[in-house]
Structures are given as structure tokens and as C-alpha cells.
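Entry 14. Ran structure prediction on the chain below.
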Amino acid sequence: MRRTVGLLAAVCATVAATGVALADSQPTARSVAAPVVRSGPRVGTVESVTGLIERQGKLVGGKKELTYSYPGASYVKVHFSKWALREGDRVTVSDPSGAESYTYTVPESLNDSWAMSITGDTAVVRLEQGSYDPLGLRTRLAGLGIGVDKVARGFPTEQIGEDAAPRNPHRSGREESICRGGDEKRNAVCYKAANPVAYKRAQAVPRMLIDGVELCTAWRWGPNNRLMTNNHCISNSYEVRHSEIWFGYECGTCGGSDTGRSTKVYGDRLIAVDQTLDYALFSVTGFEAIQRFGYLEMDPNPARAGQELYIPQHPRGLPTMIATADPGERNGNCAVDNPSYYGYAANTDISYYCDTEGGSSGSPVISASSHKVVALHHFGGCPNSGVRMDLIYDEVGRLL
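Output, C-alpha cells:
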């Protein structure tokens, strides 16, 4: 399958039990001490449609396309109910200009009959016929064509609820993720000159669109085809395969309104999963397309109280933002508040007051000095918290 992605337009915020479960067998949780629920903000809806393009016997005139337009939608994603074509035929799904375009030649190139999403409010489906019956016998072609039965469309960015990250089951009271002093997150590009190392590390932190309607954040671990997010985001092979991973989804300028060029790939294989430590390790298709975005390293050592941090993330599915400030700290920077905090079990997390929101689940919590990942963000609550990376590394380090 050929995938060509053009310039995307989006609204950018201007504010600154026995070890790991391997997915080669049926994934099972390490512990059932706490329920895991899908909690990424719902950012879209799926509706039924009826669309059909019949394949003609000869390449004669007439448009062979379907258009699905939803004014204000942030993305459009089509689902094929029928795929009965001849060798050489191609199906293209694109935006109206063709700047973002994905071409499919066989059903197996689809993600379980879902095409890749198109950023923006309109998707155009085209059938490009290849060879045809030289005798032009339409009876031989009866029933051939493609059909569309569902469309997922994204809500406008401003309508996506500012849900908190999942609530820590061991805390009570109001749960929030924007902590002391208001929202201190800023667009990643704002750090391009001020903190180029943090900006570069943020390139390895893609947006996840799960099952067409939910969001989380992920990050690339090491030089091989390995990515990580939360178990409460994806917990089985179905959810992995139904996930889109968007790299390069960031604002072009610090105060601008357009994103840069984005590269989208599908999730491929669930490699390891753990419920108590709330992680999911997986691979993607088209790995060669994302290698240029770099990768992050895990820190196998426990985090320290007062250790300064930053968190690249996709809150509410927005283009990459980085949380690095905390006015409640003496020096104004995010830092580890408690290096041995209660997550889904005792002493599994570190806590901090770095700002996060719904959609930030799965983000890497990075040391500001070593630039290695010290925790996997998963809870709101002020303090917010992430699973200790030294515990995760003990389980998955050999899988790199």
C-alpha cells in the first residue's frame, strides 16, 4: 500500500501476578488488583452510511468516487463493507486536494476494512480501474465494486471534552490534571530554540487515534520497532490493529495555527502488556516511515525526589505539547514530588504536578537532565502520576 501524506491543517493551541504477559499468546494481566478501563477522551462518532461504486466493464466516462463531508470535523475515516475488484484496480482515499492520500490495492492492505483517517472534514473515495475484460462482458463483472457502510468523524477540537486522566482508585475527591498556577503546557515548537533537546525528544511522541474515536499518547522506545502506551489505552490485538499512530503532528510555529507534515501508520502487533503497571508495548506497520522521528530511552534507575521533568504529550488530541513548568516548585520547573507513589498498587508510581489532560495517557515522563524516560504517565489527580520506568524496564528490557 502506498501512503502519501500532505500538509495538514489544524487548530493549534496558542497557550504556551507473574511478570509480563507476552502477546504471542493470549495476553493476560499480571494482576487484577484494579480495574482497567478505557478512558481516553472520546473525540469522534461513528455513523452508518450507504455508498457503492460499481466496477464497469470498460474504462468509460463518469466519475467513480464517493465524497463524505462533515463541516467542521477534525478527521474523516471510512469503513469498507465490500471489496470485490479485479487485479490492478486501486482504491484511493484522500482529501479533496489530494494532498493527503492513501492508496489500497488489496483488502489486506486495509486495517480490518477501515481506511486511514483523512485530516479535515472531507474524505473522497475513488476507484481507479486497472485491467478489464477485453470483450467488455459486463455480465462477468456483475457485483464487482466497493462499498462503504460506516464513517468515523472527529469532533472539532474545541468540542473535545477536557477529561482528566484516569482517576487513581486510591485517591478521593475532585480529580484534575491541570495543577498549580493554571495550564503551563506549551506547543512543542515553542521549545525548538529554547530547549532543543526536549523539542527533539518530543518528535518521538505520536498521537494515537484508537478505534476511530478515542485518543491517547504513545512514544517510540529504542531504535527498533517498539512503541509504548498505557494498557488502559490498548489492551489486546484488536485495539492495536485499530489504532492509528500520528508522528509529526505538531504546530509549525509557536503562535501559529497550522500543523506540519504528519506521517500516519497503523498499529501492528501487541508485544507485551501489564495491567498493574499499566503499559502496552506494541509495533507498527510501515516502521521505515517513522524512523526519522527518533526514539527515547528508558532509565532503568529509580527516579529521585526533586528530579526535574518534562512531559511531551497530546492533551485532548492536540498537536504535540510539552509540560515543563510548575510554579509551585522553587525553581519553577516540573519535578518528582514522590518517587514511590500509590498507582494501581503500592509504590508503583512517581507523582508530580506537571500539567496533563485527557489524551495525555501514555506519555513519557522524561528527566530534564538525562533526557531518559523515568515514568509512563497514566493518572490525574494533582498530583498526577506515572508508572515507574525502572519497574517496567525490569519486565520489558529484554524485548528491545
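The domain at 160-399 is CATH 2.40.10.120 (Thrombin, subunit H). Will compare against last week's run tomorrow.
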